[in-house]
Amino acid sequence: MPVICSEWNFRSGPADQGAQRLLVPVVDLPSGLRNSRPAGTATTIGVGAVVDGADEAAVLDDVAVEYAYGDAATVEAVTRWRAAPVKRVPGAWRATVPGDAPAGTFVHLRVTLADGHGAHVAQAMVRAYEVR
């Protein structure tokens, strides 16, 4: 089962009382019921966000995705993060994790998202999926 850790930053001031603008990551990972992907196959991941309490998707200005391989079970234990190529496509963002991990390896993901309103979120997913 994946471990997820998130960190939020947002602009705030005396006039910004009440609910704050929090980005909630939406990661569309094409995995099956076993939360796995086949070895030797690149994985394209959809990345986006919603604003907490809003009904529509957030418009993101900046998206970064990193990945790492291994059997770590905590965020602190994951090392050797690598940048995944990210492309903006109409209405969405896509990142591609290469298919070079051997079978039996877990893939960890870290997404960093920002919008034009000063909201920012970083989320790490330990053991996001297993390569089989």
Contiguous helical run count: 0
- Terminal CA distance reads 16 Å
Reported by name, the CATH topology is Immunoglobulin-like
Query: What is the annotated CATH architecture?
Result: Sandwich
Number of strands: 10
Q: So what's the overall shape?
A: elongated
Oligomer: single chain
Strand proportion:
over 45%
Could you give me the name of the CATH homologous superfamily?
A: Macroglobulin (MG2) domain
Q: Give the uncertain stretches in residue-range form.
A: none
Average pLDDT number: 91
Structural class: mainly beta
CATH class: Mainly Beta
- Percent helix: under 10%
Order of helices and strands: EEEEEEEEEE
Q: What is the CA-based Rg, rounded?
A: 16 Å
Number of domains: 1
Helix and strand layout, with pairings?
Elements (H helix, E strand, L loop, with lengths): L2 E7 L13 E6 L7 E2 L5 E9 L8 E11 L11 E3 L1 E4 L2 E6 L8 E10 L4 E12 L1
Parallel strand pairs: 3-10
Antiparallel strand pairs: 1-10, 2-4, 4-8, 5-6, 5-9, 7-8, 9-10
Describe what you observe in this structure.
By secondary structure, this protein is mainly β. The protein has a single domain (3-9, 21-131), classed as Macroglobulin (MG2) domain (Immunoglobulin-like), CATH 2.60.40.1930. The protein contains no helices and ten strands. It has strands at residues 3-9, 23-28, 36-37, 43-51, 60-70, 82-84, 86-89, 92-97, 106-115, 120-131. The strands form two sheets. Strands 1, 3, 5, 6, 9 and 10 form a six-stranded mixed β-sheet that branches. The protein has a four-stranded antiparallel β-sheet with strand order 2-4-8-7, with no helix packed on it. The chain is elongated and about 50 Å long. The two termini are 16 Å apart. The model has no long low-confidence stretch (mean pLDDT 91).
